[in-house]
Each structure stands twice: as C-alpha cells, then as structure tokens.
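haha ok so turns out i had the wrong file open the whole time. this is the CORRECT one, sorry everyone. sequence first:
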Amino acid sequence: MAKRDYYDVLGVSKGASADELKKAYRGKAKELHPDRNADNPNAEAQFKEVNEAYEALKDPNKKAAYDRYGHAAFENGGGGRPGGGFGGGAGQGDFASAFSDVFDDLFGDFMGGRQGGGGRRRASRGNDLRYNLRITLEEAYAGLQTTITVPTAVACGTCNGTGAEGGAEPVTCPTCSGMGKVRAQQGFFTVERTCPTCNGAGQTIKNPCNTCHGAGRVEKERALSVNVPAGVETGTRIRLAGEGEAGLRGGPAGDLYIFIEVRDHELFQRDAQHLFCRVPVSISKAALGGDIEVPTIDGGRSRVKIPEGSQTGRQMRLRGKGMPTLRGGASGDMFIELAVETPVNLTARQKEILREFDKQSEGNNPQSSTFFSAVKSFWDGMKG
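then structure:
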C-alpha cells in the first residue's frame, strides 16, 4: 500500500512553517493518541503515521530531501527511515521534546499541570491566615480599634527572605536546569517527576541561612492594629491584605482574615440591624398604663408610654435605636416587648384586695372570655 503524502498526513500545505508543522503535529497526535481512541482499531497505526511524518518534516535537511525526492529520499539508506520510532538519529532530542509537549497536554492535569515560566518555582505565596475575634454588642454598635497578636511566619531578617547566607541569590538547580522537574524516557512514554535535588523549586542554595535554614522565613508573633467598623455581625469577615504568612524564599505574603463573633447580651437580642428588649411590668402598670424607662445600646435611656390594658407580648418601637448598618445608611429600630409579671409572696391584705378585685373584674378580661367561649363551643361540638 502506497504511503500517504506527509503533508496530507499532518493536514498542512507544502510551504508550512516549522511552527505550523509543530502545531499540526500536536493537534493530530492528541486527536489520534491510542489512549483516547480505545474503540478505534486504526488509531495506533494512524498515530505512528503522524509521528513518522513529523519526524521527517521537522528537520530542515530531511524536509528538503522529502520535498525533492518524496518517500524515496528515505529508502535504501537515503538519510535514514523517518519512521524509526524513538531510536537514535539526528534530531532525536527535538522529537522527544515535541512529543513531551503532547504528553503534557494529554496528561498535564493528572501529573500536576505544567508550570509557568519554564516550570520554575523560585518563590511561593504564603498561606492565608484566620483569626477569630470576639467582641461585645456594644463594640459592634460603636466600632472598635484594637490590637491583636498573630503567630505567623515572617520573612527572615538575616537573609532578607532569600534563604541564603548573607542574602545571596539562590543558584539554578544543576539537575533540572531550573525546570523543577526531570524527564525520563520509559519506552513509548516520557515520564516527568519532581526534581529530587531541589524538590521542584528549580533552584538550590549553596549556603543556607543559619537563622531560617534556607526557608527564607521564621516563626514569630506580630502585633497588628485592626479597625472593626460599626455594625459588624457574627460571621463578618475582615481581610488584611499581605498580613498573612510570609512567602517562601521571598514570595508574596498571604492575607489575614479576621472572623468576627459578637457575644450574646444580657439585655438585648439582635436580629440583623434591629434590637429587641423584653421588659417586665407589673399587673397594675399594665392595667392602668403609665411610663417606664428602658436602656438603649448606646448607654442612654428612653421613656416609653405603656397603654392601658397592655398584655404580655405587646411590642413598642423606638425608631433609630437599633444597630447601625455596616455600609452606612439608617440605623435599625429597637423593639420593647412587655412581659406582664405576676406578683409573688403576697401578704394577707394583698390577697384580700386581689380577691375583691377579681369579683369586680368580671367582663374585663377579653382574652379569657374569648378563650373559654371557644372551649365551650368545642365541648358542645364533641357532645353532638
């Protein structure tokens, strides 16, 4: 069976440039790779055909010979068979490099991905840190300026974060030539591993710093000033850019995230920007009405008028006496909820007065009348 034209195999014109040839080869190799075409019995043969075509056309001398003589250029010792697989011959390193690019595209994600800048990892960003800060409701209302102490890794002052003694620059790793990874040919595949000399950093330090032992950072506690804005709630997150863990070998620092927790208050309950305060009142005050004095979150006090005949659970609103909103705007409201209190430890005279009051109060308890009327209807219905 006659061989197909190499340009047709790659799907390019005869005047294609080296970059166009390489791009076409990579596309075809990825498309026809046997691992991606388990259900295509011809995939392996087509894949080898693509490899053979590219090996011939990638080399300028072989390409010139092929353009002049066709397939006859590689027959009877005419320059070596281009389809000789992964064996020796001129240009072998170039072909291995091109195939390793395809290997990276096919399996890069599985192997950890390709790294930018030729795979070098000279410096790495520091980790982000979390700090939990508990504050009072009053502090959440007014805002807070405080200082926190954070244990973290900071850039080594002895080597200025380089990890090398005297602040000297690290040198390129001789094993991987700064790539951070090494490749080995194993039969049909090129296998890539993290460089054992530099552990993937791409660089080595001849004389490590005695203080940080080559890491470029040391453990230390830092005092930071934190501005907590008014209106924060539990779960509010404050980000301090660059205040996290120092980067490795001079890399950028991470960020510090402060998570706010607002403690429970003994007088006020919070719902977003609104506050609730449960206030006990005597039976006589609830029945006759009158004024009471209630606290506010800013430390002040407000007078509230209780209407006659108030029941437990009745609410009254104090506008603007709640919590400020975090991003500005109007403050929330404060709600006063009444709790009518039953007196205890009555004297004989008090009991006598209450019995007399009870006799005179028939028809003055609307909730009781409504409830027991409903109960009577229920029982009558059950009898029916």
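Residues 77-81, 83-98, 107-121 have pLDDT under 50 and may be disordered.
again sry for the mixup
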